[in-house]
Every structure is written in structure tokens, then in C-alpha cells.
Amino acid sequence: MGEMTITKIPVGAVALMVAVISAILGLIEGIISAIGLAAFTSSLPSSLSSYVSFGAAGALGVIIGSIIGGFIGGYIITAIIALLYNWLAPRVGGIKLELE
Question: Looking at residue 28, what is its pLDDT?
Fold first, then answer.
């Protein structure tokens, strides 16, 4: 089929797709972080455990925060990158793809 050049990226569609992927990765990160924090707080000496508590609400907060942060951060960063790409592609040249 030949060589094609990407000259414009649909900002909203690409940003939404990356945001959803980032939210899924945020879920995984949040679960790992919650497990790590729970293990850390349970290993503290009893004299400190009264000052630091990390229960189910804390774990849920970490997980939900990671999901929301991943979605919002992924959307914003990807939208900025797509806008920059759309601005730079005509000036510098877009990404060339070789299709069969």
C-alpha cells in the first residue's frame, strides 16, 4: 500500500483512550500501593501504631485516587501531546508509516 504520513491526531479520541488505559494502570498501581501501605503500617511497633492507621477506608482511598489521578493525568498529558503534535507535524513532518 505504500508509505503514509500522520499529519493530524484527533485530540479528544486519543486522549480518552489513553485516559482509560491510564485509569486501568492506576487501578493496578492503587492495589499494589494499598497492599504495600497495609504491610508497612502493620510492621510498625505498637507505640507508633496508634499514630498511624491504615484501614479499609485508607486502602479504598488510595485505589480510587490512583484511578482518578491516572484518568485525569492521562487525559491532560495526552491532549497536550496531541495538540503539540498537530501544531508541529506540518512544520517538522509527521510520523511516517509503511503499510502493506
Answer: 97
Number of residues assigned to the chain: 100
The total number of structural domains in the chain stands at: 1
Assessment of whether the complete model's pTM goes beyond 0.85: no
C-alpha to C-alpha distances, 45 to 35, 48, 51, 100, nearest whole angstrom = 18, 6, 11, 64
DSSP output for 22-56: HHHHHHHHHHHHHHHHHHHHHTS-HHHHTT----H
List CB contacts of 14: < 8 A, sequence separation 6 or more: 78, 82
- The domain in which residue 47 lies consists of 2-99
Q: What are the φ/ψ torsions at residue 99 (nearest 5 degrees)?
A: -110, 150
* Contact call for residues 16 and 77 (beta carbons, < 8 A): no
